[in-house]
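Suppose a colleague, Dr. K., hands you the sequence of a protein chain of 335 amino acids and asks what its three-dimensional shape might be. Before reaching for any lab equipment, you can write down a predicted structure in token form. Begin with the sequence itself:
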Amino acid sequence: MKPRHRSLILPALVFTISLLATPAFAQTCFTSDDMDAPTRSALQTTATKYADMVVRGDAASLKQSSIPSVANDFTWIANTIKDNQANLAGAHTTARPPFLLKAQGTAPLPKAEFLCGLFNATGQTANSAEFVIPNLPPGNYGIETVDLNTQKSPYTISFVLQQQGTDWKLGGFFLRPSQIAGHDSNWFLERAREFKSKGQSHNAWLYFVEGRELAVAVPFMYTQATDKLYDEAQSVKPADFPVDGTSDLVAQNGKTYKLAALFPLTVGQDLDLVVKYQTPDVSNTGQTFQENMAVMKALVTKFPELRDAFGGIVARGVEPSGRDYGSLMPMKDIK
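The predicted structure, expressed as tokens, is then:
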């Protein structure tokens, strides 16, 4: 199950998932129990300090604490902090046990794989983890997640910390809610299994996606639990959804639309479904609105079970430049 849109990944550290090792280079991972106490303390203290900056809205200080490539492209981080300021106000921070990744060599590693903790013949164990990072420069990196307990909803904020001298600088930033529409990972997974038992495989797939998304703090970390979720979700993976590419949707207006993405999203207090489709141009917003409506109607006509799982649909036409135009319609109004 691949990471989705809400993953915030810096250009300097683009993370993906792979099962292929890179034996030509040395990659070592230390769990919190494996590393020395001063390093563990430094990672947790640094991440907590950076998390406090985020909670206070002090983007300027966080930028000053970043590696150059991050500082030079900091606008989106600053905007993310600003957009979430009200949600994070007064949050209490708790640092989780960190991981220490050591990448050796003289040039960036094409595909650095870090296996942390104990693995057995069947793969991961309860306390193991896997990280895979392509094009990673040699160096020491800390992965530290901080739980943010707020008055509104819990969040996690994870940092990739790169060691520079005696300091740990910001090299990656991930801010994620731990709940969607008031529901956590386990709730979505339970609903996914209920949908599966009813034969509603499309709803089950979408809820498995959301459940797994909420179960991990960063998209490039794999555990025994997420591996099991991946395997479970494969049993309902739809062939007619844009999971590994685009999929075709024929509308009542006779047009065939190429769907690019489908995923749940909270809008207000509702859980809605976002559908993105390819279109040549969105500059004519009136026409694009009609296209959006056609896609919504075609989607619920082809997959009526979606009405049981979502409060509405957000259709977004996306042109080749990346510019898009979206429309929201409550499910009850899609006829």
